[in-house]
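Write out a record, fold above all:
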Amino acid sequence: MDGDDRSAGKCPVMHGSMTTQATGVTEWWPKTLNLDILHQHDAKSNPLAGFDYREAVKALDFDAVKADVEALMTDSQDWWPADWGHYGGLMIRLAWHSAGSYRLQDGRGGGGAGNIRFAPLNSWPDNGNLDKARRLLWPVKKKYGNALSWADLILLAGNVAYESMGLKTYGFSFGREDIWAPEKDVYWGSEQEFVGDAAQRYEDIMKPDTLANPLAAVHMGLIYVNPEGVNGQPNPLNTAEQVRVTFARMAMNDEETAALTCGGHTVGKAHGNGDAAALGAEPEAAGIENQGFGWINPNLGGKATNAITSGIEGAWTTHPTKWDMGYFDLLFGYEWELTKSPAGANQYRPINIREQDMPVDPTDPTKRVMPMMTDADMAMKLDPAYNAICQKFMADPAYFDDTFARAWFKLTHRDLGPRTRYIGPDAPTEDLIWQDPIPAGQTGYDVAKLKSAIAASGLSVADMVATAWDSARTFRQSDLRGGANGARIRLAPQKDWAGNEPARLAHVLSVLEPIAAAHGASVADTIVLAGNVGVEQAAKAAGFDVTVPFKAGRGDATAEQTDAESFAVLEPLADGFRNWLKADYVVGAEELMLDRTQLLGLTGPEMTVLVGGMRAMGTNHGGTAHGVFTDRVGALTTDFFVNLTDMSYSWVPTGANTYNIVARKTGQTRWTATRVDLVFGSNSILRAYAEVYAQDDAAEKFVTDFVAAWAKVMHNDMF
């Protein structure tokens, strides 16, 4: 046919993202600021847009769901037979590895969004064969539909598995909402291979605390430590130090770490009986005919006795489907020697073990097989601190049970947020320090009178707005920690953070605290309301009467309700919104601003309008003039954008992070700026946003958009 060049063999559709070609903007220009982190979970990727999961799950038949999950533990043996006919170990590992990717430094990872369904986690070596565990759960998910999220079901499966094997768990809460695409905002490391040289992550691999932040795992593709030893070299004492740092970065202390290690290995087994090189590709690299399954094993289907996952082979206890003290009985009851698994992995075997202490084969109950321990297990015995904790557990099994149950609950609920968000009959009512408890606040006070008192206090717009911002900016949507609720900005360590300008903060609090007490309001509410008053005053100075939305009810936390050490990770090292950088970092100030923006749950346009407004109101850290492109400081104007895009100026570097804004005609410096300011003019996407507010018709839209974005930040933690 005319014009139909079929003979050329050309594909008739666009290529690009469907191939491995480097056709994206960041591939061509790798130094450009990538804003994808701000817009990854938009409505276009969500098939349930508008659906309120947290309301829907409340109507779930919780007992029926648990009964179905418990039945699954010993059913469905046709296509993927379980070890000893019980899927408990597999489901615990699924839940553990889903939750265990959490890290305290930035609150990212964890099981709160069902992210283990997507790359890269679904294809990490440490998550081998967990694709089968999720498929085994599919009938339950299918039955209950949208009322039961994958995130909840995966973690519930681990809980039910422990209960089915005899553990009294501490509780469980529903309420986790699924994501629908990979989390591109999580930095898992820069390595280009899985389980490569761990030294790439450390300044000194023999000093585990030099592991680069915010990372917690010691290798790309692992959840915790290398079970064969540091960089694959067995040495239990060295491994103990890596275990200690890794678990601390996942919010666990030594006792919780020992409890989780010992309790996690009380049930189930590791799989390494065969040739690991024979395994097929991981799920993301597998052929389309595998339908999402990876690690296909040609040797007898790779099930039970013949499975290969970690390469380590064997159970830790005599009765691997029973919650008991068997882990301690074997670890401390025998001496252990280093050996190799059938797959060639380093592991330990007991010396002169009695036959009755050996577990039976996972598929043939007439045979007994050798148990094993990993380097991390031997660390529990040989490290003095862990040994002492284990001795305490062995002397009081009930204490071990309770300590493990609480640590497991913390592991699986760390990123669900405060206790007020818990849903379901098994949700515990005890306040735990890691939940950042906050007492209920008051709502019956007269908001209008409180606002009037604040307005008459003599505080400046900049002081009111900056203090409210500093109080609220600690919020992290990653694990729902931080925020203005609790007014922890007045407590250690926050009151002393450099980014909060301690002297200025102390002055503002000395004014606001008596006002709060006089009106029966919390300090937390009063700080936020003061910020609102400042915004309203600034808007009025720009010619607009606005009322900033406000919801009362924040409480004031006490020092006793605050785990100061765990709050240290919330300290900002930079704040582009207040044009502050504590020090020079490997990444630019604008990239740090994107990270903070994403944690606050803001979009690119919201970030843009907030930066422009806060510059106009003069809220810069230390009162610096960088980016304050206005002669009307304190008024909520569009001047930042108007002058940023004014072509009568040129931009001259004066340092690594500072610039002069110079009038082209006179050569005189008119303004000064930082990289964070100028990126709104240099980056093509941010400039497009900036131009919206630089236009002559933008003044009212700017104020309206600023107020909406401001209110969003102030209410982030009002669950």
In short: Residues 1-8, 14-22 have pLDDT under 50 and may be disordered.
